[in-house]
Amino acid sequence: MARRRQVMSEALKYELAKELGVYDIVATEGWGGVPSRQCGNLVRLAIEKAEQALANNKPL
């Protein structure tokens, strides 16, 4: 089986979890303990940050 490349670093995942207030859940129960709604919010926040990074590096 081919190994998939990670899209987000572990550090970014934990940073986003802290921003959303679910870091304690991740720390005690792992990512499987995070409610699906919060996982969706985590993905949305990651997309927003990626879009902002692209916008800031875009040549004028």
UniProtKB/TrEMBL annotation:
GO BP: DNA topological change
Keyword DNA-binding tagged: yes
GO molecular function, one term: double-stranded DNA binding
Keyword flag DNA-binding: yes
Record keywords: DNA-binding
Source species, domain of life: Bacteria
Protein's job: SASP are bound to spore DNA. They are double-stranded DNA-binding proteins that cause DNA to change to an a-like conformation. They protect the DNA backbone from chemical and enzymatic cleavage and are thus involved in dormant spore's high resistance to UV light.
Similarity field: Belongs to the alpha/beta-type SASP family.
Protein name according to UniProt: Small acid-soluble spore protein F (Minor alpha/beta-type SASP)
Organism whose genome encodes this protein: Thermanaeromonas toyohensis ToBE
